[in-house]
Amino acid sequence: MTTLFSPIKVGALTAPNRIFMAPLTRCRADAEHVPTALMAEYYSQRASAGLLIAEATMAMAGNSAFWMEPGIHSAAQVTGWKLTTDAVHAAGGHIFLQIWHGGRACHPLLNGGAQPVAPSPIAIIGDEVHTPEGKKPYVIPRELRDDELPGIVAGFAKAAENAKAAGFDGVEVHGANGYLLDQFLRDGSNKRTGPYGGPVESRARLLLEVLAAVCKVWGSDRVGLRLSPLNSYNSMIDSDPVGLATWLARRLNDFDLAYLHLMRGDFFQQQQGDVVTPVREYYKGVLIGNMGYTADEAQSAIAAGKLDAVAFGTGFLANPDLPARIKAGAPLNKVDPATFYTPGPAGYTDYPTMGA
């Protein structure tokens, strides 16, 4: 029986187990978005994951949505990330970098006064963004012109090149959770006409162009993609999320990606549906499930062939030795949400292992 502890081929890599670490924004970079030695310690502590997927990282300058999140667009950031990749590899792990553009989730106070950009001039509502001046409402973004979109694609390609220079094993394109590529995908945030709006094949155009460009840099067997067709985070909605997921599952077979990383639900329970079943039916590559899986549920889903691996988020955040704990049936550390985004080691590198 295929288990959580069976090795799996993920594109060009062979992961030693199917307990992957999901990308988690932790805001421990410095004020210039340069990754720190503390981040290298954090990731190397978790190197027993089958695959580490590092946090959302700015592909291009001027698109901060979290204040202290890392980037991969400067030489200093490449050097900073090299600390992490060297530490993870020394600990025997594999690590991909999630490359990302915040779109309308960005804020002028985080980006020198620049207005954020999006497929349509529709602001995120019902939440606020962390800024140096405290939490602030999101602003109405500027609608990107069609002639600006090749620059977005080129920015992702350059980020992929920089990730390679920083020593990563591959990259994950962030097409989820209400950030720029997801904003284009879903009809609740994309109201434009022309080649990048309207029917699903047009709304998906930017994502597909980004994937093609990134695969050209890395080879498709070192590129993953994350999707969240149901998640309403960042004011997201789609009139047919299951249809969107099904269309993408078929179309993504053209890329022969290392994996597809699928978030199965909605943080806020605004949208319901089963996206895992149609994606498993039509997508022919490695499928990683994510969002609230217990170890037992993950094992059952993998054994039944519904998924190939599962990415754990807060479980890995609080338990650097999560695979060993699952294997031993040991209790898990409790997570502390108050330290998710705070600076320093507290709630970051100080969670104890079983031995400790």
- Sheet-strand content, in percent, reads 15-25%
Order of strands in the sheet with most strands: 3-14-13-12-11-10-5-4
Helical residues, percent: 25-40%
User: What's the CATH class, please?
Assistant: Alpha Beta
How many domains?
1
Distance between the termini: 32 Å
Task: Provide structural commentary.
With 356 residues, the protein is an alpha/beta fold. It has a single domain (8-339), classed as Aldolase class I (TIM Barrel, Alpha-Beta Barrel). The chain is 29% helix and 16% strand. Helix 1 packs parallel to helix 2 (75-90). The longest helix has 17 residues, at 149-165. The model has no long low-confidence stretch (mean pLDDT 97).
Structure keywords:
single chain, 11 helices, alpha/beta, TIM Barrel, two-stranded antiparallel sheet, 29% helix, 356 residues, eight-stranded parallel beta sheet
